[in-house]
């Protein structure tokens, strides 16, 4: 009899786990993730594949000023985390366009050669299709590397370059040990919600709050998907893109007005887990990197935030939005 009840108990545990797993599972194109505004899709043909790039195109809610801003997300995110920034910019008259870059968010996850040049070109084509002649470009984290490349390639299209804790302020390949894409893929396959939370807590925020959990729920939720190996492969490909395609040597070539927004407690390093604690301590120091980068960009301004990490628009939203709108 005891054995019978034990089997029932074990069965219930397995059932509950399966139900919880099913509840937490997200598709790798985030169909069930609610974005702050309606999502549209831009068709692209590349390397023999028909793919699509998701984007939000949000009209001004305040008196239209005839200007547009485009927002580039970071590597571990999609357009879903820009809601408060979109609301603030549309309230003061801006049209705001928010793409999920190919390989991220609700966009396709193709196996292709990923490059910042190609991503920048697709974003320009999206803007051209939408009739946007010139735009303010705001890039966060990896989006900062992309925004920099966009401004370098299309200065005539870039009214102003805004960089929120961009990565790529160092050349990672000069101090992070090389791993090839196949090796990085094996690392990506080990991702869990708990490993995501631990990384975000240790690298992105100065103090963890329950309202940040939705970021973990999305990044961790896709790991339950049967298609997660595709997500992991694309994540490995874009890791290689970041590692092999630095922008740090070209900051002096930027020709557009530039503002850096820097959370001074940020210690983000791409490939941080490959470094010793001593190595980690001397890299990714944004309180130094921000100033060094601003000095390289002709005429650049820098706005620094105390007690703030990698994502100012989430960690200190009011302070960040005041600084952002003031810089416009």
UniProtKB/TrEMBL annotation:
Gene3D superfamilies: alpha/beta hydrolase. Keywords: Hydrolase, Signal. GO terms for cellular component: membrane. GO terms for molecular function: monoacylglycerol lipase activity. One of its GO terms (biological process) is acylglycerol catabolic process. This is Alpha/beta fold hydrolase. Residues 1-22 form the signal peptide.
């Amino acid at each position: 009899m005891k054995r019978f009840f034990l089997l029932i108990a074990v069965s219930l545990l397995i059932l509950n786990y399966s139900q919880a797993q099913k509840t937490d599972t997200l598709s790798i194109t985030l169909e069930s993730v609610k974005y702050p505004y309606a999502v549209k899709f831009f068709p692209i043909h590349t390397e023999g594949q028909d793919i699509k790039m998701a984007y939000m195109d949000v009209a001004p809610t305040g008196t239209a000023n005839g200007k547009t801003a485009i927002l580039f997300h970071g590597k571990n995110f999609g357009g879903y985390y820009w809601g408060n920034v979109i609301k603030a910019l549309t309230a003061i008259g801006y049209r705001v366009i928010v793409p999920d870059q190919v390989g991220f968010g609700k966009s396709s996850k193709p196996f292709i050669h990923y490059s910042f040049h190609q991503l920048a070109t697709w974003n320009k084509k999206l803007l051209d299709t939408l009739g946007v002649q010139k735009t303010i470009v705001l890039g966060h984290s990896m989006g900062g590397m992309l925004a920099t490349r966009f401004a370098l390639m299309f200065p005539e299209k870039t009214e102003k370059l805004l960089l929120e804790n961009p990565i790529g302020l160092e050349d990672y390949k000069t101090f992070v040990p090389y791993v090839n894409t196949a090796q990085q893929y094996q690392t990506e396959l080990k991702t869990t919600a708990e490993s995501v939370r631990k990384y975000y807590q240790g690298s992105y925020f100065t103090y963890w709050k329950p309202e940040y959990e939705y970021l973990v729920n999305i990044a961790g939720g896709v790991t339950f998907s049967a298609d997660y190996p595709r997500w992991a492969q694309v994540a490995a490909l874009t890791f290689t893109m970041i590692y092999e395609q630095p922008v740090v040597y070209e900051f002096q070539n930027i020709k557009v007005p530039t503002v850096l927004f820097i959370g001074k407690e940020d210690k983000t390093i791409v490939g941080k887990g490959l470094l010793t604690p001593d190595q980690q301590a001397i890299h990714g120091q944004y309180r130094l990197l921000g100033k060094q980068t601003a000095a390289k960009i002709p005429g650049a301004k820098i706005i620094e935030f105390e007690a703030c990490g990698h994502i100012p628009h989430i960690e200190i939203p009011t302070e960040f939005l005041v600084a952002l709108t003031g810089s416009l």
